[in-house]
Design a protein that fits this description.
Strand order of the largest sheet: 4-1-5-6
Shape: elongated
Structural class: alpha/beta
Radius of gyration: 31 Å
Length: 432
């Protein structure tokens, strides 16, 4: 046990003192803060000016005025609260009336097309004859993928519907009420009752936790593998193996590097608390609320990280013992890496229906549980028996992986040259 602790201490201190660890640990929360705060800051700076020339052949004398009022209202300022405003793209419209008996062809469009090509802030909108029936409006700009176009589309749609209602003898004073959008109140059902909560924050939390577990398990698992390869290449392992059992060496390496990951997580959690305090107002200005993370969720996060780390790090250590070079490791590690990548491919399916039989079954698979069960916990808080079954399955898988890896590790760390075949691995497993 004492020798294992010595190896553990060496693995831990060697890595936390490196510049790469310090830079990576500090840079990650900084980038996370930038990605959290910067969009809200930029939204408050405004989206610029767009000038739209409206070629109006609708024959309705009031359609342009209704469109202008609605587009101006959508782009003036979107409120994120009583004291918080987001300045969006500002639109200015000019009106060109086209007689109904003339086609809006090249003669009408060409001057405005030339302006739009030269200036990305200019565009032109065609309201053809019959637009109040079934004719489609046309919008042309140099950059048709501009996000501000959604405001134009909604405003045009509202203006046309409003004029249709007036033409159908609906009183003008009631038109605004008919066109008023409906805001749906969303909440989460819990055993204690309902809580008012938007679904988007929960999805964001689930994705962030899935991403961090995925990245750290992959990163530290590969770190274990490379550490084994480096020791084999430098022949240090031959000296260590003369005084330490291979199993003790492997466990010291696994636990030491795992503690490096926990140290990094602790720093990130503290940084996230600070970022949350400064970013809450930015998130609120975009119509969202910061999700309240229960302590149980953070505990589960640590548990599933540790279980996932020990499972995959053991497999990566086994791969490192089997190979002698980084080139061989790139091929040999592929099956293990694919087991980590597969849950990321299933993210969308599990997120859409986290309580389905398939989602529950996949979250019980030990190799998928660290990410998929953690995501289900953050979304729907599954029954305790499912969580405990998932944890129990991972513990059994870890014990089996340690048993398998220990037998390969004790022989493989002293083997050099050609990568062993399946038959040779079988002989290693039979060694006592």
């Amino acid at each position: 046990m004492k020798k294992t602790l010595v190896i553990l201490k060496r693995e831990y201190l060697t890595r936390v003192r490196t510049k790469a660890f310090v830079i990576g640990t500090l840079l990650t929360p900084f980038l996370l803060g930038v990605l959290t705060i910067l969009p809200g800051f930029l939204a408050t700076r405004g989206g610029g000016q767009r000038h739209i020339t409206v070629l109006d052949q609708s024959g309705d004398p009031e359609l342009f005025d209704v469109l202008k009022n609605r587009l101006s209202g959508s782009s003036a300022e979107a409120s994120g609260g009583e004291d918080q405003k987001i300045r969006l793209t500002r639109f200015s419209l000019s009106h060109v009336v086209v007689p109904p008996d003339q086609a809006i062809d090249k003669a009408y469009k060409e001057p405005y097309r030339d302006e739009a090509v030269k200036d990305s802030e200019k565009a032109y909108l065609v309201l053809p004859a019959g637009v109040l029936d079934d004719a489609r409006p046309e919008y042309y700009a140099k950059n048709p993928s501009d996000f501000s176009i959604s405001n134009v589309e909604h405003s045009i749609s509202d203006a046309i519907v409003a004029r249709r209602l007036v033409r159908a003898n609906v009183p003008p004073e009631k038109v605004a009420g008919y066109l008023k959008s409906v805001d749906i109140k969303t909440g989460k059902a819990t055993p204690e009752g309902e809580t008012e909560e938007s679904g988007l924050p929960g999805v964001i939390v689930a994705f962030v936790m899935l991403f961090f577990i995925y990245i750290t398990i992959l990163m530290y698992g590969i770190t274990v593998m490379r550490g084994v390869i480096e020791e084999k290449s430098s022949r240090i392992v031959e000296v260590i193996a003369s005084s330490v059992k291979p199993t003790q060496m492997m466990m010291g390496k696994l636990v030491g590097i795992g503690l490096v990951g926990l140290t990094q997580y602790a720093i990130w959690v503290g940084s996230a608390a600070v970022i949350t305090a400064f970013g809450a107002s930015m998130v609120a200005s975009r119509g969202l609320t910061m999700p309240k993370l229960p302590m149980s969720l953070l505990i589960y996060f640590v548990i599933f990280f540790l279980l996932g780390y020990f499972l995959y790090a053991t497999l990566y250590a086994m791969v490192g013992a089997m190979v002698s070079t980084e080139e061989e490791a790139q091929q040999a590690q592929m099956p293990v890496t694919m087991l980590i990548v597969v849950p990321m491919l299933l993210f969308g399916m599990v997120m859409n229906n986290p309580s389905s039989g398939l989602s529950v079954g996949l979250s019980m698979v030990p190799f998928f549980a660290p990410t998929l069960m953690m995501m289900r916990i953050s979304l729907v808080n599954p029954p305790m028996w499912q969580v405990l079954t998932s944890i129990g399955g991972m513990v059994v898988a870890i014990l089996a992986a340690v048993w398998l890896a220990a037998r390969i590790y004790r022989v493989g760390i002293l083997m050099y040259g050609k990568r062993p075949s399946i038959a040779e691995l079988g002989r290693w497993l039979r060694y006592t």
